[in-house]
Amino acid sequence: MTAPRLRVVVATRLFTPEVGAAAFRLQALVDGLVAAGADVLVVTTRAPGGATAGTVPFRISRWPVLRDGGGNVRGYVQYLSFDVPAFFRLLLQRADVVVSEPPPTTGLVVALSSWLRRRPFVYYAADVWSEALSATDVPGFVVRLMRSVEGFVLRRAACVIAISEAVAEQVAKFDAPAERVRVVANGVDTSVFNPHGDAAHSDRPYFAYTGTISEWQGADVFIQALPLVQRKYPTAEIRFFGQGTDEPALRALADEVAPGSVVFGGVVPPREAAAWLRGAVAALVSIKPGQGYDFAKPTKIYAAAGCGARVIFAGPGEGAAVVANNGLGDAVDHNPDDVAAAMIAALDKEDTGHGHRSQWVGENASLAAAGQAAAAIVASLARTQP
Q: What is the per-residue pLDDT for 325?
């Protein structure tokens, strides 16, 4: 007698074809589950402009959602516009296991609906949300509330998948049982982020910053460094691809200290981002020190190195260690002088490390491999439940 197919529901406010690390990570998980023979339903939002992922071997349930001015599902009202309907949508779905992506409000909805339906859920922790929140200027009571919600979710998950050992250590601070926490490394789509595609062309040498632009990343340090770089290389510029809460402040700073030399290109498809990375002098990545977020390993590192681009990482912690210890570029302190020195050095010296960096990513940061590993954890959890 043939065993019934494993039924998995994935609840996420972001999913392909939207551009973002979370969307790509969940797509890789779903691909891994489908390859293992699971019946998968993705409960998500209606993509901007009604875009779809085309014909796929799994089911997608999309629902209208509120978005901010930049088209993001970011902000408490926007989160709730997904989470509240998702609670009822999840109640109506049969599943052996449910997977939740942050924020913790979505995790709470998944936890409550799973409790009512008496089924396990997995929390896929790409980061610790309340730690990132504490690095912004939101009121303290909001941080405390979100920390309580996040702790509730982490302690009640049948399994927490953390994208790094450092994230797992942060999860442990919420008293989540250690035996329920599994680490699956993060990564990028190496079929896109590799050195073999087209490279963007520009009349000016440029540095590329791709992905989220949030306060806790402190990307302003690159703009502050640019006038120092231009003393030797007057035509050097920075190109930002992505968006986030700190973008308005960065635009204002750029107009003040480097007018005409900082380009904000918005969110672009992955293949276009990869082309800009291949043509860049170096890719820029940062973590602002003193924000309690030193454990982060931004996906930007892997995307850039996968394309062969050297990385200039400004800031402390795990991300700096990844860059410095694996020959992916330069890790420097988060200040304009040190950042400018690294940018000038990149302009001075021909880059011969493309092959090493892309090979390292292929061997250590493949998103497909990460998705397969996460899928195996989800499947094994469902099989062991009574």
A: 97
